[in-house]
Amino acid sequence: MPVDPAKLAKLRKQSARRVGGSRVKSRRSQKSEEGDDTKLQNALKKLDAQVMTGIEEANFFKQDGTVLHFNKVGVQAAPMYNTYTFNGFAQKKSITELVPGILPQLGAENLRVLQQIAEQYQQRKNAEKQEEKDEDIPDLVEGETFNKEEEVD
C-alpha cells in the first residue's frame, strides 16, 4: 500500500494539535507537623508504647557541656524495642544553671561523674584561654628581627 507524503504530513499536523491538550496543575497540600506527629504516634502504637506518668522533667547532657532541659515532658516507652520518646519544649542550658536543682536527685556515683565532667569542662576552658594568650605573642627565633629590612637592588 503506497503512502501519500502530503496526506502523511497533514495527519502529523492534526495529531500534534490533539496530543497533550492543556496542562492541569496539581494542587499540592502543605505538609504540617501534625501529619508527622500522627505518623509517629501510629508507629508507637505498633510498638505498643505506653505513656509513662510521674516524670516531671528530663535532662540530656551533651559532650560540649550544655544540657537539653525538658521542663514539662511527655514520655512514652516501648522497653521491648528499647525505644523511648520524649516530647515537649527543650531548652538549651549550661550545667551550672541546673546543678542546684539536680544535686538532690543524684546518687554518690553520679556525683562523681558530674564532678569529673565539671573538671573536664574547666580544663577545656583553661586550655582555650591559654591558646588565646599564646596566639597574641609570637615566639622569638634567634637571629631574626621583626623589623623589615629594605632590600637594595
TrEMBL record:
<feature type="compositionally biased region" description="Basic and acidic residues">
    <location>
        <begin position="30"/>
        <end position="39"/>
    </location>
</feature>
<keyword id="KW-0678">Repressor</keyword>
<dbReference type="GO" id="GO:0005854">
    <property type="term" value="C:nascent polypeptide-associated complex"/>
</dbReference>
<feature type="region of interest" description="Disordered">
    <location>
        <begin position="121"/>
        <end position="153"/>
    </location>
</feature>
<dbReference type="InterPro" id="IPR002715">
    <property type="entry name" value="Nas_poly-pep-assoc_cplx_dom"/>
</dbReference>
<dbReference type="InterPro" id="IPR039370">
    <property type="entry name" value="BTF3"/>
</dbReference>
<keyword id="KW-0653">Protein transport</keyword>
<keyword id="KW-0805">Transcription regulation</keyword>
<protein>
    <recommendedName>
        <fullName>Nascent polypeptide-associated complex subunit beta</fullName>
    </recommendedName>
</protein>
<dbReference type="GO" id="GO:0006613">
    <property type="term" value="P:cotranslational protein targeting to membrane"/>
</dbReference>
<comment type="similarity">
    <text>Belongs to the NAC-beta family.</text>
</comment>
<dbReference type="Pfam" id="PF01849">
    <property type="entry name" value="NAC"/>
</dbReference>
<dbReference type="GO" id="GO:0015031">
    <property type="term" value="P:protein transport"/>
</dbReference>
<feature type="region of interest" description="Disordered">
    <location>
        <begin position="1"/>
        <end position="39"/>
    </location>
</feature>
<dbReference type="InterPro" id="IPR038187">
    <property type="entry name" value="NAC_A/B_dom_sf"/>
</dbReference>
<feature type="compositionally biased region" description="Acidic residues">
    <location>
        <begin position="133"/>
        <end position="142"/>
    </location>
</feature>
<comment type="subunit">
    <text>Part of the nascent polypeptide-associated complex (NAC), consisting of EGD2 and EGD1. NAC associates with ribosomes via EGD1.</text>
</comment>
<comment type="function">
    <text>Component of the nascent polypeptide-associated complex (NAC), a dynamic component of the ribosomal exit tunnel, protecting the emerging polypeptides from interaction with other cytoplasmic proteins to ensure appropriate nascent protein targeting. The NAC complex also promotes mitochondrial protein import by enhancing productive ribosome interactions with the outer mitochondrial membrane and blocks the inappropriate interaction of ribosomes translating non-secretory nascent polypeptides with translocation sites in the membrane of the endoplasmic reticulum.</text>
</comment>
<keyword id="KW-0813">Transport</keyword>
<keyword id="KW-0804">Transcription</keyword>
<feature type="domain" description="NAC-A/B">
    <location>
        <begin position="34"/>
        <end position="99"/>
    </location>
</feature>
